[in-house]
Target: Multidrug ABC transporter ATPase
Amino acid sequence: MRILVTVTKNPASPTAAPGTPSGISRLERILAIMIVAIVALALICFVAVIVATSAGVGANDGFSHGIWPAVFFVPYLGLPLAFVLIIVVLVSNGMRRSRAAKANAR
Model:
């Protein structure tokens, strides 16, 4: 939870010195929130499948009707997508820090 607070904090706070880089970009904040939302949705769907299986929904091919195919599909797509988004955030953060280090070196 602490990382989400750190990522979504407003970098342009009144205590920041004028002329300093703004820190975390809007894109990085949006990607971080998307990652959290996708992983949370995938985990909720995963738990729903476990609970539904224990409740007997899977008997007589019950998972092939209604919303259940989508519930099964969300973790298969969501977790790899969240992993790719984490890589994108890491690369973006590395590029931003590299640019800032080069700018400070001059």
